[in-house]
Design brief:
This protein has 218 residues and is of the alpha+beta class. Helices cover 43% and strands 18% of the residues. Helix 4 crosses helix 5 and helix 5 packs across helix 9. The N and C termini lie far apart (138 Å).
Length: 218
């Protein structure tokens, strides 16, 4: 009987020790799991750093601004006095056809020279107003001579501002053709073409944007 009580007492002590040991393990495991959940991984930390509004390059629009600085060949830039005539024509989105015509005619280098020159630059709409198929034919290699003549009919030697244009006067173009000036008040027309934008100053001359292509007589 005494041995039975001692055996039962020993079993009770062993169970108590085992339960205590198991309880400590569960608490340690729970603590470790909590630490794992609250500790940010390196990738998550980098992501959080990238969205910090005080981090350079992370502010909204920075990437878009850099992308818009990738310049196209024609149009989309500001016309500036420090740029040449050809550069300013190429910068204006309303003069992209004129820029293409200058290149096709092979006159870019000439008009990038010292000058000064006065350029009467027709708008894209002015070229579109030509009879159907005219521009396409002029851009063909076999019609380059005619294209050059038309371009030169929009070039005048010297720097002539809008204020210099006087009613009844005549301009002599590089194509050796006369252009008549009609002026009322401050509005001038050149061979029937209205000046839409006057006095675009360039480093080697001035540009007047007009609404008509000045085709010389053949």
């Amino acid at each position: 009987m005494r041995r039975t009580k001692m055996l039962a007492y020993g079993i009770a002590i062993c169970c108590s020790v085992a339960l205590t040991s198991c309880g400590g393990t569960n608490e340690d495991n729970a603590e470790n799991e909590l630490q794992e959940e609250t500790q940010a991984t390196p990738g998550a930390q980098e992501e959080a750093r990238g969205t910090d509004p005080n981090t350079p390059g992370a502010q909204t629009g920075d990437t878009d601004i850099e992308a818009t600085e990738l310049n196209p060949d024609l149009g989309g830039h500001e016309m500036m006095p420090s740029q040449s005539i050809v550069q300013n024509i190429s910068s204006d989105p309303e003069l992209t056809t004129m820029a293409s015509v200058l290149r096709q005619a092979g006159l870019v280098d000439d008009l990038d020279g010292t000058g000064p020159y006065t350029i009467l630059a027709p708008t894209n709409d002015a070229f579109e107003a030509l009879p159907e198929g005219t521009l396409e034919d002029l851009m063909k290699p076999e019609n380059k001579e005619r294209l050059v003549a038309i371009v030169k009919n929009h070039v005048v030697a010297g720097k002539i501002s809008a204020a210099d244009l006087q009613d009844g006067n005549t301009l002599r173009t590089m194509a050796n053709a006369p252009l008549k000036i009609d002026k009322k008040a401050d509005e001038a027309m050149i061979n029937g073409a209205e000046i839409e934008k006057a006095d675009v100053i360039s480093s080697n001359g001035v540009i007047h944007v007009i609404n008509k292509v000045l085709v010389p007589a053949e």
